[in-house]
Amino acid sequence: MRSLINILELSVGEIDELIATANDIIANPAKYAEKCRGKKLATLFFEPSTRTRLSFEAAMYELGGHVLSVSSGNTSSAAKGESVADTAKTVSCYADIIAMRHPKEGAPYVAAMNASIPVINAGDGGHNHPTQTLTDLLTISREKGRLDHMTIGFCGDLKFGRTVHSLIEAMSRYEGVRFVLISPEELKLPSYVKKDVLKAKGIEYLQTTDLESVLPELDILYMTRVQRERFFNEEDYLRLRDSYILTPEKMKLAKADMSVLHPLPRVNEIAVSIDSDPRACYFKQVLNGKYIRMALILKLLEVD
């Protein structure tokens, strides 16, 4: 039995295999419609979610399985003080696989240590979000035809953005990838990510506060929102929330084939008028999330 808590638990070969399975699901959905018949996915979401929870549930339904759902901590025994470990042991009695989102970093790891079924980390605090990273990798692969030799710009909240941290870790394993880190001083990429990933591997990166100056060199622009829920101080959030707004005017500076990604939800950081630009890939990204989660559920349940 195997769980997925951190993207680095998957080898590059396994990621390539998951992408290949997802592409086959996209091409041949009928082939997969009964693969998880009789299987149950428990979605345990102790933090708000639209895309991640619904994509996991849609993935399991489209594989022919069933879903048991906890959509907030207030509706579960966590509100009575039940531990994550006990919740995991309990849910293992009812389901075949768990997808868990939790505000506390490390909670899905604790669940995996105590569950008797696979656990998928669907986001833990500002720490990790491996299935969003798989979604991002599938999207980049489908848009660019490769995962190597490109320049990726990350823009916005790089301090608390778990999707950013996970994607940097994943992409750092592919050759010729260069990172451009665009953020206010207060929301810079944590020093441990730079030390443990970028500097440790000798990966080229540039830090800047100026989006326009670097737009022309990017193959991928990964926008993020400034996350209100991670701030202790409302004043700091209000001051920083509109630091970067991608507009059609700014898009004129970018390559004709640059792809714009965003893990969503969007607040103000991408103008709605960008949605009709062929370079806008964030709603394709949403759909890709369902397919890659289907592939991951099949892998962890060891369905042929």
Give a verbal description of the structure:
Helix content is 37%, strand content 15%. It is built from eleven helices and nine strands. The strands form two sheets. It has a five-stranded parallel sheet, with helices on one face. Strand 3, helix 4 and strand 4 form a beta-alpha-beta unit. Helix 2 packs across helix 11 and helix 5 crosses helix 11. The longest helix has 19 residues. The radius of gyration is 19 Å and the shape is globular. The two termini are 15 Å apart. 42% of the residues are buried. The model has no long low-confidence stretch (mean pLDDT 91).
Features of the shown structure:
11 helices, 5-stranded parallel β-sheet, 15% strand, single chain, 9 strands, alpha/beta, 304 residues
Could you give the topology of this structure?
Blueprint: H1 12-27, E1 40-45, H2 51-62, E2 66-70, H3 84-91, E3 97-102, H4 107-114, E4 119-124, H5 130-144, E5 150-155, H6 162-171, E6 177-182, H7 191-199, E7 205-208, H8 211-214, E8 220-223, H9 234-240, H10 248-251, E9 259-261, H11 282-300
Helix pairs in contact: 1-5, 1-11, 2-11, 3-4, 5-6, 5-11
Number of helices: 11
CA(first)-CA(last) distance = 15 Å
Alpha-beta content class: alpha/beta
Poorly predicted tracts of residues: none
| Total beta strands | 9
Shape: globular
Approximate strand percentage: 15-25%
Q: Classify the helix fraction into a percent range.
A: 25-40%
Order of helices and strands: HEHEHEHEHEHEHEHEHHEH
User: What number is the mean pLDDT?
Assistant: 91
What is the alpha-carbon Rg in Å?
19 Å
Please give the largest β-sheet.
5 strands, parallel
Strand order of the largest sheet: 7-6-5-8-9
